[in-house]
Specification:
Distance between the termini of chain A: 124 Å
Strand content of chain A: under 5%
Radius of gyration of chain B: 22 Å
Largest sheet of chain A: none
Helix content of chain A: 55-70%
Oligomer: heterodimer
Shape of chain A: rod-shaped
Distance between the termini of chain B: 73 Å
Strand content of chain B: under 5%
């Protein structure tokens, strides 16, 4: 005994899925994303350009101020330099002849430039 | 600590020298402005004092630092800068103040204070004929419309308020 198909045959089988197409065509997504990214990159590099120009502006502002700041500092350094020279002269007066000769001996042969003293003598901090 | 005496880092070393410069070196007023006003005025100082500044820097370059040799040029630089600041204070004090106070608030970012800067530049150009110009570029960043980095400062509203007040004063 075998089952037979119903009279009139089976109904046609729905082999194709019946899903509504969701969203746009893929190519539209591609161009949308590419466009958004393109705009982002464009904007980013515009920003890079602008940051560079802002840095340039800041640097030139500093360049214009530099001489004035240096001049002020130089006056202070020169003041201390002359003061140190005067102090050395005072110390020299109370030296023995031997020390004085040693003191007067030139340290450098090259006299083409001013050398600022790197170290200065001062009292021990506990004596302040 | 017993050994503390010998660690010089523990001591507060002072090297103070209060002697004045000798009398044969002329005195000069120091600028005395703080960083924000200086930054605000820097381009005008640069525009007006260019010859003095270059003279001074050249002198320093030629004299191995020139701390002692270039005092004269240095005085000229300082005098010139002081004169520019005096002029700005005389003619454009309100705009100047608006701008440097903005700079002070905005961490010294010039890009965040464009509105008040515009007012200041206009006033300085009208009165002192000094123009802010960044050398070596076609596009001057401070004249750019709709820049990307504007910050979120109150500069715009404050400048608008300033303008309104000024107009009201002009009417009275």
């Amino acid at each position: 005994m075998q089952d037979l198909p119903p009279i009139g045959g089976y109904e046609p089988v729905q082999w194709k899925r019946n899903l509504p197409a969701r969203g746009f065509r893929p190519v539209i997504y591609f161009w949308l994303i590419t466009g958004a990214m393109g705009f982002g990159f464009y904007r980013y590099y515009k920003g890079v350009d602008e940051q560079r120009e802002l840095a340039r502006e800041r640097q030139w502002a500093r360049f214009y101020l530099e001489p004035l700041l240096l001049a002020e500092e130089d006056r202070n350094v020169a003041r201390r330099y002359f003061s140190e020279k005067k102090r050395q002269e005072l110390v020299r007066e109370s030296m023995s002849e031997e020390d004085k000769a040693k003191f007067d001996k030139e340290i450098y042969h090259d006299k083409s430039k001013t050398r600022l003293p790197r170290y200065t003598a001062g009292p021990h901090p506990s004596e302040h | 600590m017993v050994l503390g005496e010998y660690f010089i880092g523990r001591h507060n070393w002072e090297n103070v020298d209060k002697n004045k410069l000798s009398d044969d070196i002329p005195e000069v007023d120091e600028v005395g402005a703080t960083s924000a006003p200086l930054l605000s005025a820097s381009y005008f100082i640069g525009a007006k004092c260019k010859p003095y500044n270059e003279d001074f820097m050249l002198c320093k370059d030629e004299n191995n630092g020139g701390t002692v040799e270039c005092l004269k040029e240095g005085r000229r630089v300082t005098r010139c800068a002081v004169s520019v600041l005096k002029d700005i204070n005389k003619y454009c004090f309100d705009e100047f103040k608006l701008h440097y106070e903005c700079l002070e608030q905005e961490n010294h970012r010039l890009g965040h204070c464009r509105h008040s800067e515009k007012l200041l530049n206009k006033c300085v150009f009208d009165n002192l004929k000094l123009e802010k110009k960044i050398p070596g570029v076609q596009e001057q960043i401070h004249l750019k419309e709709n820049p990307i980095f504007q910050g979120s400062s109150q500069d715009k509203s404050k400048s608008a308020e300033f303008l309104k007040l000024k107009e009201a004063e002009a009417k009275n």
